[in-house]
Fold this protein.
Amino acid sequence: MREGWVETTLGDVADVVMGRQLSPDKVKGVRPRRYLRAANIGSWGIDVLDVLEMDFTQVEEDKFACQIGDVLLVEGGNEKSVGCPAIVSEIEQGLCIQNTVIRCRSKDSDALLPEYLYQFLAAQFLRGVFGELCTGTTIKHLGQKRAFVLPVLLPPPLEQRRIVDVVESVDNYIAAQQERLDAARVAHNALLYELLNAGGDGWVETTLGDVASEFRSRTKVFPDKVYPAAGVMKEGRGLLDREPFIGGKTTYKNLTQIKGGQLVLRSITAWEAPIAVVSAEFSGRFVSGVFPVFDLDAKRILPSFMGLVCTNTTFWNEMRERCVGSVLRRKVLGAKALLEISINLPPLVEQRRIVEIVSSMDDSIRATEQTIVEAKNLRSGLLSDLFSGEHEIPTSYDKLLGAA
């Protein structure tokens, strides 16, 4: 650790306070105040759309109310949620905290910048430090005492500011890329809807059953025979890999061996209907025999175009309408009902053009997704380096910041 850095504890540099316990006798409406609980804090920050109320006396409000710059920690949860930090802004100022939240307030904002404290604790959270510090098995609890002794590495204030600025610049870049990604997805969905419902010369309004027929071949499972990875349907994700299995050690009584270009459907729960066109990488894999599999008429419809139809809002709405079953119980879409769904079918030449346009947008979206992944990996590495006290940000950075 370099000269000027100090190893201390969270309790030495910040006031660490756990919120007030929720009690039935406090929910009377005598002096109601809005309060934050663990459910309001996550990777997104602080959510104030679902804030509850309970009574706080003036003394309790003075003790538990938040100020701008306070850092809040989730007190309890699993290893992935306990210790999740968030920093209080003007929006959350004045809200109180429940005992599922721990508040950390810098004792001297000149010696410990609130933004640095937040970024440091965020780095510890990503490293899993809080999960290791906590007690409990399934539900882990941080507690005020354990938070109090959490080690903190404290550089000089000027270097704190440099670290915060570097990390926030990466955060701003990631946020900008995320906005770009969100806008691209909206534009993608709007264009896809327009292209699939454009109509014109050669377009035919028909049903899925006119271009698809159920594939009924089944493969019996034999004991002790090793089968290739089976495809698994997941909501909105199509087919996923599954580990190979040995016959006789599975609940499947039979399997359907699928091939590229086929359409696969599964029974659905609630309003989600996983339906996918099999890509070449899944050709030869297996799905459960209870999954309907369909052959597509290659002279009428391209599998790639059918894949776009499966994601179209109009197609999904009609699938939902044809589901049977109670809302509270499993809702099922049968093979016959699926084949009755109407589709707008352009000529093959037009189908190829639509696929090419959408594929180009898909490539752009995937590139932006990859950029975000790489930026997040860069951020993770930066946090590790900057908060170790072993790497110095040069003083020339101050001149660069001033010029900006």
Observations:
- Residues 3 and 20 are 40 Å apart (CA to CA).
- The longest strand covers residues 101-106.
- Residues 157-196 form the longest helix (40 residues).
